[in-house]
Amino acid sequence: MAATRRLTHSVAVITLNNPPVNALSYSLRRSIIKEFVDASKDSSVEAIVLCGANGKFCAGADIKEFGSTSVDSVSLNHINDTIESCKKPVVAAIEGVALGGGLELALSCHYRVANVQSLVGLPEVLIGMIPAAGGTQRLPRLIGIPAALDMIVRGRHVPATEALQLGILDEVVKTNTIDAAVQMAMKVLGQPLENRRLGTLPVQAIPNVDTFLDTAVKRAKGQFRGAQAPLACIEAVKATLHLPFLKGVENERVLTASLWSTGQPQAQQYAFFSEREVGKWTTPSGGKWDKVPPKPIQTAAVIGLGTMGRGIVTSLSKANIPVIAIEQDAKQLDQGRQAVNALLDREVEKLKLQGKTSVPGNGLGSVKFTVDLGDLHSVDLIIEAVYENMQLKKEIFRKLSSIAKPDAFLCTNTSGLNVDEIASVTNRPQQVIGTHFFSPANIMRLLEVVRGQKTSLTTIATAMSLGKTLGKVAVLVGNCPLFVGNRMLGPYLEQVNYLLEEGSYPEEIDQALEEFGFAMGPCRMMDLAGLDVGWRSRMEQGLTGTNAPPGAPVRQRNGKRYSPLADLLCESGRFGQKTGKGWYQYEKAGGRIAKPDPWVRDFLDKYRRTHQIARHQANSQEIQDRCMFALINEGFRVLEDSIASGPEDIDVIYNNGYGFPKHRGGPMYYAANVGLPKVLSTLENYSKANPDVPSMKPAFLLRKLAAVGGPPIKEWRTQLGNTSSKL
Ligand SMILES: CC/C=C\CC(=O)SCCNC(=O)CCNC(=O)[C@H](O)C(C)(C)COP(=O)(O)OP(=O)(O)OC[C@H]1O[C@@H](n2cnc3c(N)ncnc32)[C@H](O)[C@@H]1OP(=O)(O)O
After folding, report:
1. What residues line ligand 1, using a CB cutoff of 6 Å?
2. What's phi and psi for 581, nearest 5 deg?
3. Same domain membership, residue 197 and residue 84
4. What whole-number distance in Å separates Cα of residue 271 and Cα of residue 267?
5. Residue whose CA is at the smallest distance from ligand 1 atom 53
6. What residues in the chain have per-residue pLDDT under 70?
């Protein structure tokens, strides 16, 4: 971890070296300032270039050091001020990334030259912080308030070509970035530096700035639901209008301290590192992510071009993997082709915006559409994405056994069916694995990789590596009904139904959980997913419809409480958005604007009267507690069953697949934060009052952890002890 210095002509080239991303750790910062001060004093040096080792400029402050004391004696602000005030020209040579403190360092240089492939940005907001080394003060002075605010509040990684247009960069080159920076440094020798010192410049005035900022605050409140960092970012940028530079930087410090006291940065940083940890999978048999090499996937196929299949084809093509897309007849193939082509056209537009049009074939893998399964004989990996029907899936896997080449991997995109049962009909169960994509599959980041009993380590490694190639966060889970995410959703939605029965209306429940921070409340989510999906499954399980036990009480099944509300809605043709009616009404079938429906209120009121249920209108806190604690309790059971290997895995699944607010870290991190004894006692109270709701009976592991005072989440794994692992 050091900065090194060499001389090229009369230019000192200082290289940041702290693998893997040259994060600005305390020791790197110390070394930078030493090399920089030496270079500025050295009379043989006329100019200075700052660059990063291993093709990366710098990914910012070392996040691992946040919260630790005694590392602030060489602050990044001090380095930046020293660089900016240097009398010799300083040029940043940006390769790979210049993010967070990395871009702030570059902004304090007098010039910036970047490689065309590089990305710049101030993504601190994504880890619950604001840029606090002058970034909120220098960037608006360079590119104006609107463009700076957009970058800072969204934490966007901006491609070099766009950064050049915005005025962040002075030059973009295809190769030899450091040489180009040295050339730039020599070219500007002798030119005045005053107007290159961003901290000394005024910020450009914009008309109606107050209205503009108020709108930004309103938008951020709506979009980020309870996350404080986006609001603090706006506050920090606003300061450029009325505070001199140094006061603005001091304000950054105050805002950072105040953010830290909310606990949100800690939660988001936990989420950041958890996403990286889940890639480092292990299995009880000794399989490990860095010991088992994945097989390269050069070609892939997707069977079924419904909503999921279309997204998966697009995702593979985006990753430049040639895909064969299969449907069962010409009509459905044609519909699928049109839908996929529309999605791919949008991807091309995005690539154009990123200046990547020069990549051969636009950087997208080719897609061949066919109805002939025989075309799959030479592909490396096949993803079946037909609808959730075990018999249909088995029929396809039987056929694939004889068609696919012997070493091809067979994946099933199921949201909860038994992967072992599907694998059992093939001649290669060791090469069968579940790949549970989330809709829309070309956008959603989560991939649950479901390991069957016979799935080989190579198959796991290959599926996990494919997830990474597709830009997803892949989490290895065990095989049980509904896996992790959907299994936990069961008790959560059960509570939603009970709250509706007891007297809450859909919009009240959604409001409470959206206030909690969920991207979408559960009733809107059910409407979006389609209420008929659960209804069919309940019919198959014999809980409702013609298979239901004759004479069963309406609100009980097998001695447990049961809510028939969603069944009744489906029986009256209300399947959600697709039919224009569900828990809400929509402007048309397929419409997206949810409006409270008087019909639903009337239906719920009548239902309560029929079943003589006294109305209990739960407040937001009760709604949040019951739904969240039901979800968390099932999370503990998932851990007990070793379906997920740790709480981080569950949190990553919920943050990336279910719209859980990242500023709360994830459901299990939230539980640790609330305090496990409190979660336990709330569940115990509910359970005592409602013995017919077994999902709320506190999980054994929750009791065990609460009994030792609720240790920090990092220690939970050691408490898991010997479980019969499904991983
Ligand atoms: C006064 C305060 C001043 C400044 C504030 C800041 O600068 S806050 C930090 C702002 N920067 C960021 O938020 C960037 C975070 N990193 C990323 O977005 C990605 O890691 C990156 C750089 C785009 C690289 O992505 P890639 O997919 O290539 O790799 P991966 O994410 O797996 O990261 C590789 C390993 O590097 C570790 N790491 C990344 N960034 C940091 C960081 N800033 N500090 C510490 N460590 C970092 C990451 O955890 C990975 O570690 P590993 O042990 O290999 O899992």
Report:
1. 20-21, 23, 59-64, 76, 97, 99-101, 123-124, 127, 129, 132-133, 276
2. -150, 140
3. yes
4. 6
5. 276
6. 1, 69-72, 353-362, 722-725
